[in-house]
Amino acid sequence: MTTLVESEEHKALRSAVAALGKRYGRDYLTRTVAEGKPPTELWSEAGKLGYLGVNLPQEYGGGGGGIAELSIVLEELGAAGSPLLMLVVSPAICGTVIARFGTEDQKREWLPGLADGTRLMAFGITEPDAGSNSHRITTTARRDGADWLLTGRKVFISGVDMADAVLIVGRTEDARTGRLKPCLFIVPTDAEGFHKRPIDMELNAAEKQFELVLDDVQLPADALVGDEDAGLLQLFAGLNPERVMTAAFAIGMGRYALAKAVEYARDRTVWKAPIGAHQAIAHPLAQAHIDLELARLMMQKAAHLYDAGDDIGAGEAANMAKYAAGEACVRAVDQAVHTLGGNGLTREFGLASLITAARVSRIAPVSREMILNYVSHQTLGLPKSY
Question: What is the pLDDT of residues 28-53, one digit of tens each?
Fold first, then answer.
């Protein structure tokens, strides 16, 4: 299969997930947000149907696919107006890292539950003083006999109230050099010394954001995921899928907004013809569609490279896909709202809230400026200013 032509299996998956999303839709997600509840019903049904774990190994209850398949799931749910943000985190980041680097016991303990939706894992990397610079992470793990003691703070961690554990990025001291190196730990959310505080966000979403304080959280030796000396390799094995899935989230949102605008432009008549007959309305919508399709192509390329085991190639493509999808999403949402005029700001049409949500795809999990840094340094070979 090439990344240009979708297989029949992928088309069937896309169609099936779209049908599930349509049964829930934007009204379901809006209602759960208003009630302050997570989208438990949709998450549970998606798990039972095998969509949450489509990327995880079959021997642990998954579908045996890859990020290409999981990105289809998220994109189609988003296009139906009911995206699941924790798809980015639980199966894509945490599930992938454990599947690739976890011990047999860790795989058996976590992957079946992550695949069927009965267990959920959050991911903790961002810190108050580190921002996008993962080299400045100060959460540290030190030995305590055979155990570990984990201390530090994390911010903007999604879905901690829904999670059974958080995959925490910490740092351990290299015995040879004394330098700190990144490592990944599975931290149960009910562990002693683990404290969470919700962050008051103006962005209304079903998944809440949290600040975490880790106060000498004692962890057994087997809480460490993978090799203590292979931290960056393992970390980026999770971050590349995160970027691909963020692109899927953005493309789905952009498609939803664009579909609403196209429907309105077909039906809304002010003079003699529907407003969609006027090029000032039609051309920006056509351009938004083109931008979303181009972003999807890069997302598919990134997923294909990652699933093929090309981590370096996937890193470049995943960053580009995330950048392109974020820009396309923001433009599509903006043009959709503009097409509806005043109606675009009403609760009835449900587009205005996407203006804020779309901005997230430009900011998280890495800003567009940091992606431009990556491309200018890693792809173009330009010197760094930092």
Answer: 999 999 999 999 999 999 999 999 99
Is the Cα torsion angle 185, 188, 193, 198 positive or negative in sign?
positive
How far CA 378 is from CA of 315, 316, 329, 372, in Å, comes to 10, 8, 25, 10
pLDDT tens digits along 261-272: 999 999 999 989
- Inter-residue contact 223 to 331 (CB < 8 Å): no
DSSP, collapsed to helix, strand or coil, labels residue 165 as strand
Distance between CA atoms of residues 280 and 276, nearest Å: 8
- Burial class of residue 25 (count of CB atoms within 10 Å of its CB; 0-12, 13-18, 19+): middle
Per-residue confidence (pLDDT) for residue 226, from 0 to 100: 87
Q: How far is CA 135 from CA 130, 138, 240, in A?
A: 8, 9, 17
DSSP code per residue over 269-328 = BSSSSBGGGSHHHHHHHHHHHHHHHHHHHHHHHHHHHHHTT-HHHHHHHHHHHHHHHHHH
Chain centroid to Cα 236, Å, comes to: 14
Q: How many CB atoms lie within 10 A of CB 87?
A: 25
Which residue, chain included where needed, has tokens 């090799």?
227
